[in-house]
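Re: your question from the hallway

Yes, I did run it. Sequences:
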Amino acid sequence: MANFKGHALPGSFFLVFGLWWSIKYPLTYLNGRIKGKRSSNKFHKRLELIEGVMKVVFTLIGMLAEQFVPDGPHLHLVSGDHGWVKLMNWQHTTMYFFYGLSGVVDILTYFPLNFPQGLDRLSLALAVFIEGLLFYYHVHNRPPLDQHIHSLLLIAIFGGSISIMIEVFLRDNIVLEMFRSSLAILQGTWFWQIGFVLYPLGKAPEWDQSDHENIMFITMCFCWHYAVSLIIISVNYGLVYWCLKRNKGLAGDVTIGIRKLKSNNQGEVQTALLTASDEE
Amino acid sequence: MANFKGHALPGSFFLVFGLWWSIKYPLTYLNGRIKGKRSSNKFHKRLELIEGVMKVVFTLIGMLAEQFVPDGPHLHLVSGDHGWVKLMNWQHTTMYFFYGLSGVVDILTYFPLNFPQGLDRLSLALAVFIEGLLFYYHVHNRPPLDQHIHSLLLIAIFGGSISIMIEVFLRDNIVLEMFRSSLAILQGTWFWQIGFVLYPLGKAPEWDQSDHENIMFITMCFCWHYAVSLIIISVNYGLVYWCLKRNKGLAGDVTIGIRKLKSNNQGEVQTALLTASDEE
Amino acid sequence: MANFKGHALPGSFFLVFGLWWSIKYPLTYLNGRIKGKRSSNKFHKRLELIEGVMKVVFTLIGMLAEQFVPDGPHLHLVSGDHGWVKLMNWQHTTMYFFYGLSGVVDILTYFPLNFPQGLDRLSLALAVFIEGLLFYYHVHNRPPLDQHIHSLLLIAIFGGSISIMIEVFLRDNIVLEMFRSSLAILQGTWFWQIGFVLYPLGKAPEWDQSDHENIMFITMCFCWHYAVSLIIISVNYGLVYWCLKRNKGLAGDVTIGIRKLKSNNQGEVQTALLTASDEE
Amino acid sequence: MANFKGHALPGSFFLVFGLWWSIKYPLTYLNGRIKGKRSSNKFHKRLELIEGVMKVVFTLIGMLAEQFVPDGPHLHLVSGDHGWVKLMNWQHTTMYFFYGLSGVVDILTYFPLNFPQGLDRLSLALAVFIEGLLFYYHVHNRPPLDQHIHSLLLIAIFGGSISIMIEVFLRDNIVLEMFRSSLAILQGTWFWQIGFVLYPLGKAPEWDQSDHENIMFITMCFCWHYAVSLIIISVNYGLVYWCLKRNKGLAGDVTIGIRKLKSNNQGEVQTALLTASDEE
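Structure:
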């Protein structure tokens, strides 16, 4: 769907997930700080399940939309005269499929099937990587601005993929999780931006796709999107903190609990190592 | 051997190893979860030995085939008039040699020669890297589709090399091992795909090697291969789990054993760190 | 500000921070070695606060200077006839903004708001990365020497960004901190060098921007800058050590304290692991 | 010194260091396994000191040779008419300088000056990186074979730099140390190979520098060099093991000592983590 909607739809998905993560992770992080370990938390696990189901549902919608829109391929891959049918839609279907797979792994992780820990993160990282791979070869032979605006997207995509890959080994690390949230929001808003630039709505003027000034502006605009994304996750973190403090009735309780745990965890990795060596 | 067989042969080797790993690692992982540490397991060690021997045998076959096929170099490197003889076959021989070396290290690791742990993984990672290096310079001056289809192979190769390199430091990590298995299967099936595309069998039509649509399709096709590979390793994991559950007679036994160990190892790295800091 | 001052100003900022870090980190490191953990140190925390405030002040000055110099954009982004206004100044403003954001996170980390540890490092790494990103697209369509001299800067920038990213996980690692200091000093002096080369002062002759010899010299010159930077941080380390030794009155005290702690921490990571495994 | 000697000299330095490391590290590793921790070992520390001194001496020789050979720059950088004097020699001098710096840090680490652990590794990694950086820009505007043969060298150089960088955090890891040794030997022999290819000795015929076959052969030849390098370090490891076994009189002693420690250290990182989590 090489039009405005085809960019707004995935953009919205990423935005929703980014915003959701920017609330979920501070919530489970601060909750965990009070009550103990996060992973053993039932509430946290159920959230993961819901997320998995949502992923599967959203990607199914995306796949069906790509296949069965009026100008879609309707599951035909090869036409009679040996040409490929609507490869763009098939590529998007492929991207959605891998996100769906990641959703399935999230669901399987919930049930007591002894799925190794970390596979859910790995499958998400792979889905993001596949998205990046397809985009990378997607933009050959396009005008400079089109290429540039998509290659900026690749930074958010591959950055996200690497960051999630690290989460396989450093699970439940709040910094990585917030970083992931911020990159998801960035992807979301940037998809919208691509839509606005390449398919101007209404009577907005067309962008000159080979103007060097436009390319310079778009680079900077990408940074502003990220600045906004960072501000959004900061605000959400603040809201979650404030809500938790209010709801628990005794603000002090939360704070003390957090403080106690925090002082135990100053520079988590480092502390663990120092502790270990202090025991000699 | 720039023909269909020359791609089908290595493809089959990788496929066999990928499938084998996708059974071996879940097996030793689940077994280890019940009985304790994996590495000290005699059964596991013997499997590694057999694998090393198989590697050496397979690569010897591959090397001999590359050298002594009718149109091979028969161990001649330089011909009389200072031209190189059959460099392609020599390159393939070189690739096989490094895999053979990795097999030798596997065997040496088995015997009580005090070989440092991790050298077997390092030598495998190096073999995969050398394969990637040779392929990288292999495809210069070829038609676009040929280059593209090989460069996608490089993703699987270098991805595998990096992942095995991490195993040097994070040994016996089931997620990394399953990731490696999936990449090996991907390499295997992709070698076959390259064979089919570049040397169409029977009366199949030739591919237009400079058509942009074909390149786009091949990119997507690569993703589908990986999707199939992921599904294969999931199914194999499920089969192994189911077999272990049946064979042990008491399904509960396994599950409890696993559960117990699993709860100790939720997010292994993280737990260790948190545990260490809790002890302060 | 594409002139000498526009390079000297940021160069001075980086130089000041690099020099400051090359004193602060050895100080807190050696102090911490004597008294115990570093992070819990009030003095250290206050230093971080002051640093955050300084960052915010400096970047505000930078942003205002870029916007309100006589030939600046004065906060106008689009002029009437749909051209962009002074994009260069806007890009610099964006760079300063992200460093300012990092300063704000430093300040928030000081107050008891339960900001997760590591976010301050992450935000600094992101600021450096954004700087690199903007520079990367900054230098297209320039003469070879101009491109080359900026691409060398990118090595210092991205090297710094990666190194700070690692500090998210390995906080308070003196080697990483000194590496960061050295790269900051390198950036600082290199900005000055760029200014001297591209905008020769006074009656100095212009550089031939497409001479291959000049490019070769500049590469080497970059290495010399780094050599000087390394020597500066070594000297500062020595000075700090010497001062601490004098001030404490009893030189032996410091040395013994340090020695005792040092022997506990030989190769911190390794020791921790060995220790842990010795306890079996 | 763009001639055979100019490649043979640094090649010999790297070869000597690679061979020396391939004996030193197995020695200290196996010794450490018997007697306890390696780092606290006086013998090991003295070896490091000697190595540092040797580095300084060798690089001084290299620097003086580059400056004061008959056609050298004799410390002149700029000639009267504003041209650069013998930049190639100056670049080589710069490379040697950074290796010398690394030697100085090795020496300082020996004395009780409280130099942070890991700085010696960092300075070595930086020296290797600087070498790679200078080589990278060194080979522009050369014939294809010349470029290719140097770019293969870059793989050994940057691979080594990354590996040493990891040693900053994972000190005394025998696998990394043996990997480093193998890359140093590879660099050494490859420098000689470059000399033979670009400046054929005696009556050997010139290489056709733009023949694609030659480039393919050289790639493969690089792999063979590495194969030889791997075999050399394996043989040296075997020799060291055999000597230690003989010298200690009681072969069993060594083996038992090693076995005991080895079983404690199966997959060092992993064990540590599992141990930590077992203590819950």
